[in-house]
Amino acid sequence: MTNITLYGYWRSSAAYRVRIVLNLKGLNYQMSPVHLVRNGGEQHSDAFHQLNPSELVPVLTDGDITLSQSLAIIEYLDDVYPQMPMIPASGHDKYQVLSLAQDIASDIHPLNNLRVLQYLRQHLAVSEEQKDAWYRHWIQVGFTAFEQKLLRRSGQYCVGDTLSLADVCLVPQVYNAERFHVPMQEYPQIQRITERLRRIPGFARAAPEQQPDSE
Ligand SMILES: N[C@@H](CCC(=O)N[C@@H](CS)C(=O)NCC(=O)O)C(=O)O
């Protein structure tokens, strides 16, 4: 029996990562939606601020532990619920997985986060078109390199033939890319692997449009 709650938002790609892992590990969890746009963003409410002073989703609670940061949450889940490990225990593959995951989670995703886009629009008077160009640019820079790295070590999945944290980070980032009309045909390896991953039930059930709070 678990007592896991995931605070997230259907379109949050960081929450999407955690949903995939919870599904792959077969863990039951409750969903507590945090609407990132309504009323100026529920992530800024007093109640959510208490949970995560960074005012970002996801947050996962499990019994008396409260954690933010999707990659830390996933490492926690791997340690406590070791079925379907997302990070290889050791060896070269472990570091390849972490490296690819960070290419997305540390280098691509933060530049396109909602608060960054809002700052561009509201404080730097950037137009909607310029903001979208910014969004696409950083994904394209990141995906161009990611594609080359996949040519080196991918198999069925990002690192060989074993599902990993790298795959868990890739699929939500592709969802964001498609939403902003990044020309995905430029990234055949990313497309090939993403198509395969999307057919896995744990990934399919985690998709934004499958979430109860999706609009
Ligand atoms: N590094 C964090 C990123 C969390 C994050 O950026 N969450 C976004 C949604 S994907 C968010 O809550 N944005 C709200 C905002 O920008 O105000 C993680 O991996 O959990």
UniProtKB/TrEMBL annotation:
GO biological-process terms attached to the record:
glutathione metabolic process; L-phenylalanine catabolic process
Question: Which keywords accompany this UniProt record?
Answer: Isomerase
User: A single GO CC term, please?
Assistant: cytoplasm
Q: Which CDD domains match?
A: GST_C_Zeta (cd03191), GST_N_Zeta (cd03042)
Top-rank EC class of the record's enzyme: isomerase
Record flagged with keyword Isomerase: yes
Asked if the Swiss-Prot or TrEMBL record annotates the protein with the keyword Transport, the reply is: no
Q: Which residue intervals define the domain GST N-terminal in the entry?
A: 2-85
Q: Which InterPro entries match?
A: Glutathione-S-Trfase_C-like, Glutathione_S-Trfase, Glutathione_S-Trfase_N, GST_C, GST_Zeta, GST_Zeta_C, GST_Zeta_N
Q: What is its EC number?
A: 5.2.1.2
Q: Which domain of life is it from?
A: Bacteria
Q: Which Pfam families match?
A: GST_C_3, GST_N
GST C-terminal domain segment(s): 90-215
Q: Which GO terms describe its molecular function?
A: glutathione transferase activity; maleylacetoacetate isomerase activity
Range of residues in the leader sequence: none
What family name appears in the similarity comment? Answer: Belongs to the GST superfamily. Zeta family.
Under which name does UniProt file this protein?
Maleylacetoacetate isomerase
Q: Which organism is it from?
A: Vibrio ostreae
Q: Which gene encodes it?
A: maiA
